[in-house]
Structures are given as structure tokens and as C-alpha cells.
Amino acid sequence: MTKKVILTGDRPTGPLHLGHFVGSLQNRVKLQNTGDYEQNILIADMQALTDHFDQPEKIKENITEVAMDYLAVGIDPSKSTICVQSQLPALPELTMYFLNLLTLNQVERNPTVKEEIRQKNFENKIPVGFLIYPVSQAADITAFGADLVPVGADQIPMIEDTNFIVRKFNSTYKTEILKEANAMVPENFSRLVGLDGKAKMSKSLGNAIYLKDDTDTLFKKIKQMYTDPNHLRVEDPGEVQGNVVFTYLDAFDDDKKTVQELKDHYSRGGLGDMKVKKYLYEVMEHKFKDIREKRTEFAKDISQVQQIVKEGTERAQDITNSFMLKIKKSMGLA
Ligand code: TRP
Prior knowledge:
This protein has a 3-stranded parallel β-sheet. A two-stranded parallel ribbon has the order 4-5. The chain has 2 domains: 4-192 and 302-331, 3-Layer(aba) Sandwich (Rossmann fold), CATH 3.40.50; 215-297, Orthogonal Bundle (Tyrosyl-Transfer RNA Synthetase), CATH 1.10.240.10. It has helices at 18-34, 45-49, 56-73, 90-98, 104-109, 111-119, 128-131, 133-143, 156-172, 215-224, 244-252, 256-268, 273-299, 302-331, and strands spanning 4-10, 37-43, 80-84, 148-150, 182-184. Helix content is 55%, strand content 7%. It has 334 residues and is mainly alpha-helical. Bound molecules: tryptophan. Tryptophan is lined by residues 7-11, 42, 44, 47, 137, 140-141, 149, 151, 155.
């Protein structure tokens, strides 16, 4: 039986944080270890340039950072293909053909892109490359022949655009070469909130804990976490809901009974913030210590990491180049 193909990816705008870990990395390792899938992991540096076009050095640097995060959490290059988007010329080539298949109106309607445009205050200075990144993402997905794209809910419009393009391409060129992809949204998916409790964890909001953070940094960040602002004295009853410390205990502590006891005690009063924070620190230190140590080992041998990425990229070049040739044949161009 041929294995189902997965394509997933990240923009290398910085090292990966615990939001990535909870939202996707963990799931990728699980999918990889089932052995049921051909998993490709794309480091989407070209897509990162669509809103960081003036910082190519930073994006380049972060390719290695992201690769080290992958390896540290357990992505195994003998089981999953790690590759770099800008080294796969079939992707921009396919993007050019796809761009003819949808209208400006359609790309402007993508709700995720709309929201990002609002957040980035582009106003009327939207880079064209940014506006059409969903089309380039459609090329990523189809060039790998992906059946499944594991994503968060915000990426669903990308899959919808992709499948529109697939149908339009196949009907226009009277072919069945492209196949539709399915979004794979993890069950009870929820985004990890940032340290401030205000929004999801994100690099740009400065509320993130990184996989590479050392133990002191981890402790410092936990100390800064938003708790209940009205919990002024230890003996006061505290609010658990929306209290980031408890949100993280729910996310990272497998000992649910202890978590419940701590919640009850906190709600009753008599449990200080610092005590819960120290407990959370122990839990998180235990959970992320091995990952951090593995990452430190990889960081000592960057050339080995770069070699792994190079080999994965070569494999991805083979896949996407040979598929691109078939696509051009189906259009009558080769
Ligand atoms: N848009 C994704 C993100 O912002 C990154 C990405 C690029 C991607 N190409 C992809 C994800 C293809 C899945 C499949 O995180």
C-alpha cells in the first residue's frame, strides 16, 4: 500500500516555542512514528520573506534554529523529510502557473490573509508576494502530492484555496494530475496562550517560552506569568480560570489529580502564586529537559544539522522536480 503523503511547515522567523510544540511538533512526531505516512516538513523561508523581505539574513539563520528544534523534539530525518522551500525551484515555478487560475478578488478574500494584513498595518502598501502567499502554499502542497496537511484552524482557508486551484487546474487542462488535500486539524485543538494570558503564544508579542530556553530563563518566564491579579494575599481565594499557571499545568502536567488538588486549594485560598509557579517549573523542567539537552548537542555541531537539512532538501528536490515535469506535460508545455 502506498503511504499517505503529509506536508507541513513553518516560517523560519525565529526559533520554535511551546505553542509550536503543543500545536504541531508533538503531533508530527506522533504521525512520524506511526510509520503510516510519508511526512515532509517544509521550512518555508520564501513565505517568511513575504513579510520579512528586508531581513534575509535573519530568515537564513533561523532555518538552522528551526531544524535544531525539529531534531530536538524527535523528528527523525530517516523517517521524515526536512527541506528548505527556497531550494526547491519547482515551487515558485508551479506558483506562476497557479497565479493565473484565481482572481485578485479571490486572494483578497482569504480570511487569514485579511486578518494578517490588518495586524501588520500594511494598509494600502501590501506586498504582492504577501497577498499571494496562499497560492505559493498551494504549490507547496500540490508539488509534494500531499494528501494531508496537519494545521491549526487558521490555515484551513489555505487548504480551501489549494483545493479550488486543484479543481480549476484539472478542469482547465483536462487532467487529473493534481489531487485535493485534506486539512488535518488535531482533535480538541487549542492554541497555547502566551505568558501574558492575553493572546496566543507568539514571538512578535514577546510572550513565548522557547524550546531552547535554558532552565534559568524558563524559571524567570514562569515567575512573570499572568495569574489572578486580585489574588493579593496567600489566604485570599484565587481565580483558576484564565490563570496562565493553571492553563500550563493543564497542558503539561500528566498528573491530573495533583493539578485538580492545586486548583481546589487555590480557589479556596491559602495557596500562594509562587508555590504553584515553583511546582509548574518542576513539571516543565522535567518535560523539556531532554529536548533542551538534545538541542544543545545539535547546536555544538551545526554542520551536521545543515547536512541533514541538505539531504532532506535533495530528496524533496527529486520529488518536486519530477512532479513539476509531469505537470508541464499535462499542460502541454513539455
Ligand atoms: N503557512 C504556514 C505557517 O504560517 C507555513 C507553511 C508554508 C505551510 N507552506 C506550508 C504549512 C505548506 C503547511 C503546508 O505556519
